[in-house]
Specification:
203 residues, mainly beta, 7-stranded antiparallel beta sheet, 4-stranded mixed beta sheet, 1 helix, 2% helix
């Protein structure tokens, strides 16, 4: 398995990082949600419930970039807003990312916050895996929905994105700097406060 680097993912001021494409028209602005299971009905695990160290809010932070690139360090001080907002911390139906329009193509960025008291090697309710779900309404033909990432390993950049389909068999790996296509390096938990995962790979 190759772990391809996502260009600009995390706390960076880039527009073209992740892309969602609907192949039919939609009637409502899409919502991007995060769940801690593949059945999209649970938000009780640590990754979305948070810890004392991060104020018991979701560790998954997202911002829509359809409107343009975010400011630098956009993920450093995001509140968890009930309902839809951008940026927002994602937690099921309680807090989600709301896109700005009904365009068939939408862009976003995503970051993982790591608090000092995150459970090391968490399993069960302490794990840090999450599932993304995008929701929109339609009145005509049901759209197929495709996720893509700007593939830095394939030469993707802000000015010349290379969009690789992010299949549902692939996982996103927040990781430490210096990871490679053959190795994911673990994030070092901070001794106090929180940090944002510096690198993201899909494989």
């Amino acid at each position: 398995m190759a772990y391809n680097k996502v260009f600009g993912a995390g706390n960076n001021a880039y527009q073209y990082v992740f892309k969602i494409y609907f192949d039919q028209t939609i009637d409502s602005a899409p919502k991007l949600k995060a769940w801690d299971d593949s059945s999209t009905n649970s938000t009780s695990h640590e990754v979305l419930a948070g810890t004392t160290g991060n104020g018991n809010v979701s560790m998954v932070v997202a911002i829509e970039t359809t409107s343009g690139a975010p400011s630098s360090n956009w993920a450093s001080s995001v509140s968890q807003t009930s309902g839809g907002a951008s940026p927002n911390r994602l937690k099921g139906d309680d807090a989600y990312l709301l896109f700005p329009n009904t365009n068939q193509t939408q862009y976003f960025n995503l970051a993982l916050e790591v608090p000092s008291d995150a459970t090391l090697g968490g399993i069960g309710t302490s794990d840090h895996q999450f599932t993304l779900e995008v929701v929109a309404t339609y009145s005509g033909t049901a759209p197929n929905i495709y996720f893509y990432f700007n593939d830095a390993t394939a030469g993707g950049s802000e000015t010349s994105p290379v969009w690789t389909e992010w299949l549902n068999t692939m996982k996103l790996y927040p990781c430490a700097s210096g990871s490679s296509t053959t190795e994911i390096k673990s994030i070092i938990r901070p001794t106090s406060g929180t940090i944002i995962a510096p690198e993201y790979r899909v494989g």
